[in-house]
Q: What sequence folds into this?
């Protein structure tokens, strides 16, 4: 019997283990073969010459706990039961514990388009793990479809590895995706906090200079795109299909008007040997669903999240959540949330309070903001929690 | 051609150690940091299987175990996710072209 089982060895899970390791018998379970979760592969410049190197952070977090806790990589949780304690069924045996922290992170969302099943088409996250963790180039020349903080950060990372990104474009219209040139433009402006010294010179300035609506600014955006941060960004072109016989050979892009409507006669082909699809991230909460826990849909958190309070507690006693399962944010917030969940388990109220303050601080000053309405989403969650637990 | 990024401007150098494995009868070499997807990609293998219904080529997609597009047979075990399987010396990896699970009555072409 373990005191606590942590599901997920990403930033949240490993940080939780760091707090619990001295006083508790802890097991960390992860489906992947290496600890770190999606820290593995993260690489961006926080400020001039200060790099966030996810793998180094993962190695250090894991190094701190590896002697003191049990770790089972390559192990998938397939069911969880709760009576007097928790019983967790995995692909490599059954384990029991008094407390559980579910730190399963997020999944990448995709949108379908013709040719998306060809070899060479992958999520941006796949390209990130290949490039920065396994150190294999996803190809020689790529096109990224979808414009959001994740896809733009990973586009930069491909550049650091000397992999050419030929174009970053919007996806075609479909019922699942309605990203318009105006939305994309706002995404670009919101990323002004990232790498401030050299960010999106042209796109950002274009927006700042114009006391007009973003819609008007989009009209002035050059059709074939701008080169911002070294990234070839087109918000007035959409990829309409991916071409190739046995693997990716090119994409077809169409020009669109400022409302995002495709101009059928204005198309061209961009040769490439890989394509990354990116529609952002969504919390991964199957394990909480297995316990039939209440979930709420909050757009700014990335989708359905298990109902929880700001101290990471859920409706099930002794079951806590931490990291991107609680909403899409950066790894620093995830690490603090892991510490908070662990502090709750050991009843350290003083540390819980300071950690909570740190979370609010980090949330406010985060360089990469995944959603502009995040704070409001968290407030909405808290009021739903209070209502539900009444 | 796909390539291994041994030298990286920010992340520095990694060693390209040669770990032998077998892919559809052919000996290839990967690195000790590889999953099966990355080891195969480094050898310019992008087609991991043929779709069970129409024979169209399929490769890795999410690379973190969520989509199951990269399922292969590893040392005789079917339906292993190549992206979640760390490369081990002398592993035998084969592509699959049958449905991952037999439907009732053994009908495959449904």
A:
């Amino acid at each position: 019997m373990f005191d606590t089982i942590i599901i997920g060895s990403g930033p949240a899970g490993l940080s939780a283990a760091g707090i619990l390791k001295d006083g508790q018998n802890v097991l960390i379970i992860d489906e992947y073969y290496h600890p770190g979760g999606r820290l593995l592969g993260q690489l961006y410049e926080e400020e001039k010459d200060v790099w966030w190197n996810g793998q180094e952070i993962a190695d250090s977090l894991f190094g701190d706990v590896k002697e003191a806790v049990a770790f089972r990589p390559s192990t998938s949780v397939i069911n969880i039961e709760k009576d007097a304690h928790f019983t967790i069924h995995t692909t490599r045996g059954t384990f029991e514990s008094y407390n559980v922290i579910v730190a399963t992170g997020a999944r990448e969302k995709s949108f379908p388009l013709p040719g998306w099943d060809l070899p060479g088409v992958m999520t941006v996250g796949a390209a990130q793990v290949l490039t920065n963790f396994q150190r294999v180039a996803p190809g020689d020349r790529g096109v990224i479809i979808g414009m959001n903080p994740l896809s733009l950060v990973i586009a930069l990372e491909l550049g650091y590895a000397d992999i050419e990104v030929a174009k970053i474009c919007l996806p075609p219209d479909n019922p699942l995706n309605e990203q318009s040139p105006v939305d994309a433009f706002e995404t670009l402006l919101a990323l002004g906090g990232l790498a401030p010294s050299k960010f999106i010179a042209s796109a950002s300035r274009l927006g700042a200079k114009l006391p007009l609506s973003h819609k008007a600014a989009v009209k002035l955006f050059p059709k074939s795109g701008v080169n911002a941060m070294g990234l070839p960004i087109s918000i007035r072109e959409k990829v309409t299909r991916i071409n190739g016989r046995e693997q990716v050979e090119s994409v077809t892009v169409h020009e669109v008007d400022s409302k995002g409507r495709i101009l059928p006669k204005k198309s061209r082909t961009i040769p490439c040997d890989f394509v990354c699809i990116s529609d952002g991230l969504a919390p991964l909460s199957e394990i909480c669903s297995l316990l039939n826990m209440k979930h709420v849909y909050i757009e700014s958190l990335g989708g359905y999240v298990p109902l929880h309070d700001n101290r990471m507690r859920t409706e099930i006693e002794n079951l806590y959540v931490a990291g991107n399962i609680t909403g899409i944010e950066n790894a620093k917030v995830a690490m603090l949330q892991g510490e908070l969940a662990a502090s709750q388990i050991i009843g350290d109220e003083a540390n819980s309070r300071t950690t909570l303050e740190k979370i609010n601080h980090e949330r406010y000053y985060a360089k990469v903001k995944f959603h502009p309405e995040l704070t409001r989403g968290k407030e909405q969650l808290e009021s739903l929690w209070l209502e539900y637990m009444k | 051609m796909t390539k291994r990024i041994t030298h990286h401007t920010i992340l520095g150098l990694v060693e390209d150690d040669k770990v032998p494995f077998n892919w559809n009868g052919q000996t290839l070499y990967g690195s000790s940091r590889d999953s099966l997807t990355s080891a195969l990609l480094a050898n310019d293998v992008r087609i991991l299987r043929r779709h069970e219904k129409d024979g169209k080529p399929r490769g890795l997609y999410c690379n973190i175990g969520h989509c199951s597009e990269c399922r292969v047979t590893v040392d005789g075990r079917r339906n292993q996710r190549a992206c979640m399987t760390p490369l081990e010396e002398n592993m035998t990896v084969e592509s699959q072209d049958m449905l991952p699970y037999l439907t009732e009555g053994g009908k495959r072409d449904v």
